Automatic annotation (TrEMBL):
Domain of life of the native organism: Bacteria
Keyword terms of this UniProt record: Iron, Metal-binding, Oxidoreductase
Pfam families given in the database record: TauD
Family: Belongs to the clavaminate synthase family.
UniProt cross-references to SUPFAM superfamilies, sorted A to Z: Clavaminate synthase-like
Species for this entry: Streptomyces glaucosporus
Cited Gene3D superfamilies: Clavaminate synthase-like
Lineage start: Bacteria, Bacillati, Actinomycetota, Actinomycetes, Kitasatosporales
Low complexity bias (residue ranges): 338-351
Region annotation (Disordered) ranges: 331-351
The protein's name: Clavaminate synthase family protein
């Protein structure tokens, strides 16, 4: 039996607040040719939306950033529910056009309250804001372009120590059958001996196929570590496996974790105008199957990733980062893809 988002995990804008924000975002798209801006340019443009955010939204975002909530925040009414979007894009890397440009600015404006929006050059052509839409022939893949198949439990870019700290999913067009699921690591009830096994950096995580990379060798990582009141998690039901025997204690610990994720899941079918923010260091997420029509009226989300560490963001020097493979950005953890047992990355740094 799945749970639902709590009142503490949700905030709803009033119709007046939604209208004022949408007018401000639309005005910005008329002042600049968003399609011609690079990643830095569109982010700087989105900064101008901050005065249009209600104070209570800014406070809720601050609580979410410092981890005072439940690792998830649903913002309802960020976009007008009756907005006409036109036909959806054909793929994740399509350019932003029409009113989707104003929606992207709203997404980036909120994201800037949590850190710096960024992406990888290997991920959907390096688009800072990606479309999340079903794509023909991708129905059963483990990517956000899937539909008929279950998108299994995962964190974003778990194979990389430079994975995002937070990410946002903004719904333009919903789908009742497509439920976004998530579980916070702090809600997992696991025996101490299972936690100890999962804290060892001996599990192997392969890069997911959403990234166009030549080097697809796995990186070693721990799965669950940190203080019990705020543990971190790095998990992927499809790309993560034990380094040892398939019937060994690491494999048994993963099976126990998988069952606990299913038992503790929270789920929500995103509706138009809703933005779901998840802490990528402390939650895992998934999506239930749905039937795509492939006629331009399918489920349509916008997504961006967020780095909450300014020092780590500055290390890269650009907003579109190079290959996220562990060998590229593994200086702090010696290439393991996770902090050493007992360490924590949130507040120090973050398919």
């Amino acid at each position: 039996m799945s749970a639902r988002l709590s009142a503490e995990q949700t905030i709803r804008l009033t119709p007046e607040e939604t209208k004022a924000l949408w007018e401000a975002a639309s005005d910005l798209t008329r002042s600049e040719d968003v399609a011609e801006l690079d990643a830095d340019g569109v982010t700087e443009l989105a900064c101008a939306l901050t005065p249009a955010f209600p104070t209570r939204l800014l406070r809720a975002l601050h609580r979410h950033r410092r981890g005072a909530g439940h690792d998830a925040l649903l913002v309802s009414g960020l976009l007008p529910a009756d907005q006409e979007w036109g036909p959806g894009p054909r793929g994740s890397a399509e350019p932003l056009t029409g009113p989707a440009q104003a929606a992207a600015l709203c997404l980036l404006g909120v994201s800037l309250q949590l850190g710096e929006p960024f992406t990888f050059s290997t991920f959907y052509s390096g688009r800072l804001v990606q479309h999340v839409v079903p794509v023909p022939s991708m129905e059963h893949t483990q990517t956000s372009e899937s539909s008929s198949g279950m998108l299994d439990w995962h964190v974003e870019d778990g194979f990389s120590p430079d994975r995002c700290d937070h990410f946002g999913l903004l719904c333009l067009r919903g789908e009742a059958a497509a439920h976004t699921r998530f579980v916070s690591a702090r809600d997992l009830e696991l025996p101490d001996e299972v936690r100890e096994v999962l804290s060892r950096p001996v599990f192997l995580m392969e890069p997911d196929t959403a990234h166009e990379m030549a080097d697809r060798s796995p990186t070693a990582t721990a799965v669950l570590w940190g203080p019990a009141e705020a543990p971190e998690i790095c998990y992927d039901a499809h790309y993560l496996g034990p380094a040892g025997r398939p019937d060994g204690e690491e494999a048994r610990a993963l099976r126990r974790l998988a069952a606990e994720l299913d038992a503790k899941r929270v789920e929500h079918a995103l509706a138009p105008g809703e933005l779901l923010l998840l802490d990528n260091r402390r939650t895992v997420h998934a999506r239930t199957p749905f039937q795509a029509r492939n006629d331009g009226t399918d489920r349509w989300l916008l997504r961006t990733m967020i780095c909450s560490s300014l020092p780590r963001f500055r290390e890269h020097g650009v907003r579109v980062w190079p290959s996220p493979h562990g060998a590229v950005g593994a200086g702090r953890y010696g290439g393991t893809g996770a902090a050493p047992h007992g360490a924590t990355t949130s507040g120090d740094g973050a398919r």
